[in-house]
Amino acid sequence: MEKPAWEGLIQRLIRGGFLRSPRVIGALRRVPRDLFLPERVKAHAAVDSPLPIGFGQTISAPLS
């Protein structure tokens, strides 16, 4: 995942008022979502929607 795309999503969530806690914001910056995604969907890690992780399961959208 491109770091600027992930940071862009974080910034949009902050501006939208969805992210307010400095601790949560810091955690999102330290632990990018793509670490938990299979290779086939890593390019979509900065999309604010659930993504498939296999076995019929999804990883939640960052906003959720």
Give the class from helix and strand content and strand pairing.
alpha+beta
Main beta sheet strand tally, sense and closure: 2 strands, antiparallel
SSE arrangement, N to C:
HHEE
Helix content: 25-40%
Give me the Rg, rounded.
12 Å
Order of strands across the biggest sheet?
A: 1-2
What is the distance, rounded to the nearest whole angstrom, between the alpha carbons of the first and last residues?
A: 20 Å
Whole-number tally of structural domains: 1
Mean pLDDT across all amino acids: 93
Q: Which regions have little confidence, pLDDT < 50, spanning 5+ residues?
A: none
Strand content: 5-15%
Please tally the helical runs, counting DSSP H or I stretches of 4 or more residues: 2
Please give the number of β-strands. Answer: 2
Judging from the principal axes of the Cα atoms, what is the shape?
globular
